[in-house]
Request: fold
Amino acid sequence: MIVTRRLRLETQGDGQIIDLTDTVVGETARSGMRHGLATVFVTGTTAGVAVMEHEPGLVLDWAAAMERLVPRAMAYEHNERNNDDNGHSHTRAMLLGPSLTVPVEGGALTLGRWQRIVLVDYDSRPRAREVVLQCMGE
Amino acid sequence: MIVTRRLRLETQGDGQIIDLTDTVVGETARSGMRHGLATVFVTGTTAGVAVMEHEPGLVLDWAAAMERLVPRAMAYEHNERNNDDNGHSHTRAMLLGPSLTVPVEGGALTLGRWQRIVLVDYDSRPRAREVVLQCMGE
Amino acid sequence: MIVTRRLRLETQGDGQIIDLTDTVVGETARSGMRHGLATVFVTGTTAGVAVMEHEPGLVLDWAAAMERLVPRAMAYEHNERNNDDNGHSHTRAMLLGPSLTVPVEGGALTLGRWQRIVLVDYDSRPRAREVVLQCMGE
Reply:
């Protein structure tokens, strides 16, 4: 069985972290899949999908790490050439990646106790995001 | 249905970004798969697979970010111990990762408007690369 | 066919790299799967799964890169707010990611000559880790 759904979310950007776990768990249950793979894929080039302990301290630590590794205020050719302001957003999203696959066993995602599936939106403005959730299995 | 194909590419290395999207879209159509997963996997340890807006400014921005995070000119134990020159290539490729999974729905990859699937080759010399493309679904 | 197994490992943390390739290859063979996907997923938030040439020089180079990008000795809000010491571990693991998918063809993982599947444990203390291995295909 293969069930594909689209989630639509209004995001604020600027590194906002949105916890998708309950939605992914709920949609997986609703699909009736017992064993297989759950794939989460964001369709934008300035957002990524990751797994983390979704705890306020780590949210700040991750934001600080990204600002250190890919600063917002640097010069970006993307901004220069396209009269844009989100070169850092694209670069951060490419580092994180758009796709995550999680095994499902006995109807449950095999997430550990503290693992949460998150969407991280790096764009410089609010966006309407689309996340694809696919359950493939039996 | 499961269809696995090998793509062979001659690459230049040094961070070259090669757009695989048209090939992946074409092979997925050729497989006849309507719903499922397309997996792209590069078989080398000095190249990675990613998703980006494939725009000349961002190509330069990504190169600058990688040079800043994992400089070519640093001392690498890999180079020292193996009389080699691509320690930065291995490190960059490990950061990017070799694998990407994209849901397919109604015969089409669920890529967003600007998302392109790219191979990034970090090696210090031209290479003959092999990319595995697998379509699994129905 | 879908076969899901749990591997249990005692790890030392502090960036320890554990080669899972032989286990993944062995379990894939044992599953009897000829074609499909092998997914490797670690259930902790301070460890990641990656692919690398598992060579002593690169092990040191990767450790140096991570210490440079996400230093252990920085101030982390996670540590401050939770009286903990592994803020760097969470941040490094999030950068690496918990999940890897590898196509399988003719009963064999499509890994290249030098590619090894590794678990990288960034926690600040020894841990009992659980890795999920799922074979889905035919």
About this structure: Residues 2-137 of chain C form a domain with the Jelly Rolls fold (CATH 2.60.120.460).
